[in-house]
């Protein structure tokens, strides 16, 4: 298994910094109020299908913004671990994270085994 070493720090810092900028931009866009056309739409008749569609899109947008905020937190944590020279070590077991996993998910704080344990321990999401 190939693992991270400090010579790879600039590579991962570049990836993480770029992702941080992308996530910040996405969150700024999500926070902007929807554009309005003044009073042009004030007298339009809106049917229930349009309202349901708008509510569904709003729910998806909110879920995407929540996901982006969580990922941004992970990216910031990974950048901090780079600064502290602990990047590439699993936060749970302390073992080195496989380099292939870091390439696929640069912000991951856990090795595959520990991530699997965390996912199995997480309660299953319930649907109404």
Break the fold down into its secondary structure elements and pairings.
Elements: H1 9-31, H2 48-83, H3 99-104, H4 112-121
Strand proportion, as a percent range, falls in under 5%
Tally of separate helices: 4
Residues in helices, as a percent range: 55-70%
| Overall residue-averaged pLDDT value | 86
Shape: elongated
CATH architectural arrangement:
Up-down Bundle
The Rg value, from CA coordinates, equals 20 Å
Give me the strand/helix succession.
Answer: HHHH
- Can you say what the CATH homologous superfamily is? DksA, coiled-coil domain
Kindly give the count of domains: 1
Tell me how many strands there are. 0
Tell me the structural class.
Answer: mainly alpha
Low-confidence stretches: 36-42
Instruction: Give the termini separation.
Output: 43 Å
Largest sheet: none
From the 3D structure, determine the CATH topology. Four Helix Bundle (Hemerythrin (Met), subunit A)
CATH class division: Mainly Alpha
Describe this structure in words.
The chain has 128 residues and is mainly alpha-helical. It has one domain: Up-down Bundle (Four Helix Bundle (Hemerythrin (Met), subunit A)), CATH 1.20.120.910. It is 59% helix and 0% strand. Helix 1 runs antiparallel to helix 2. The model is unreliable at 36-42 (pLDDT under 50).
């Amino acid at each position: 298994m190939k693992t991270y070493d400090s010579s790879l720090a600039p590579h991962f810092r570049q990836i993480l910094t770029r992702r941080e900028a992308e996530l910040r931009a996405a969150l700024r866009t999500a926070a902007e109020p929807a554009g309005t056309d003044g009073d042009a739409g004030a007298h339009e008749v809106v049917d229930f299908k349009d309202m349901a569609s708008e509510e569904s899109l709003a729910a998806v947008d909110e879920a995407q913004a929540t996901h982006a905020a969580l990922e941004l937190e992970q990216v910031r944590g990974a950048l901090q671990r780079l600064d502290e020279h602990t990047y590439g070590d699993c936060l749970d077991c302390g073992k080195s994270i496989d380099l292939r996993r870091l390439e696929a998910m640069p912000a991951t704080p856990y090795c595959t085994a520990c991530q699997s344990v965390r996912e199995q321990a997480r309660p299953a999401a319930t649907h109404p």
